[in-house]
Amino acid sequence: MMRLLGYIILVIIFVLVAALAVLNAQEVTFNYLIGTFHLPLILLLLVVFVLGLVIGMVLMLLSRKRKLRDKAIKE
């Protein structure tokens, strides 16, 4: 039952991402310090989302490592 629920949630997420991609297919200009480039909005959203995930995971792992080190020092 839980496996079926997981598949249903996965399908819903896939449909939402596909709809987001279709609705945000227009090209945007991304300006940064040394230049600009053009890319589809959905690609920019995906890149920003993945960067946020990576930064969040790194910060979480650093915090966990610090807590484990502090716990080991106390023992």
UniProtKB/TrEMBL annotation:
This protein's UniProt keywords: Cell membrane, Membrane, Transmembrane, Transmembrane helix
One Gene Ontology cellular component:
plasma membrane
| InterPro entries for this protein | LapA_dom
Indicate whether Transmembrane appears among the record's keywords: yes
- Tell me the ranges covered by the Lipopolysaccharide assembly protein A domain, including all copies: 23-69
Record field: transmembrane: 41-62
Which is an annotated Pfam family here? LapA_dom
What is the protein's name according to its record?
A: Lipopolysaccharide assembly protein A domain-containing protein
In which organism is this protein found? Cysteiniphilum litorale
